[in-house]
Automatic annotation (TrEMBL):
It holds the Pfam family ATP-synt_ab_N. Residues 23-95 form the ATPase F1/V1/A1 complex alpha/beta subunit N-terminal domain. It is an enzyme of class 7 (translocase). This is H(+)-transporting two-sector ATPase.
Length: 99
């Protein structure tokens, strides 16, 4: 049985409230991420990069915000390998520190 979310469904509201950014730069384990104006994550927030690399393998990298760079950018450090990450990939701000 498949349930389609409705506008009043909690799944839809959490999806709409997710704070999404995009990778602007990758240097080793360090990522610069751009967020929409007014949606900057706090320092020490956990960020999650999910997607697929160029050969279709699943990517799931958790990062921690270390610095607010200005111009709607943050600098984060990855907690695992950044192989396969590309500029423009979607980044989710969890709204909470690593636990």
């Amino acid at each position: 049985m498949r349930i389609n979310p409705t506008p009043s469904s909690p799944a839809v509201s959490t999806l709409e409230e997710q704070n999404l950014g995009r990778i602007a730069q990758i240097i080793g384990p360090v990522l610069d991420v751009v967020f929409p104006p007014g949606k900057m994550p706090n320092i020490y927030n956990a960020l999650v990069v999910k997607g697929r690399d160029t050969i279709g393998q699943q990517i799931n990298v958790t990062c921690e915000v270390q610095q607010l760079l200005g111009n709607n950018r943050v600098r984060a450090v990855a907690m695992s390998a950044t192989d396969g990450l590309m500029r423009g990939m979607e980044v989710i701000d969890t709204g909470a520190p690593l636990s």
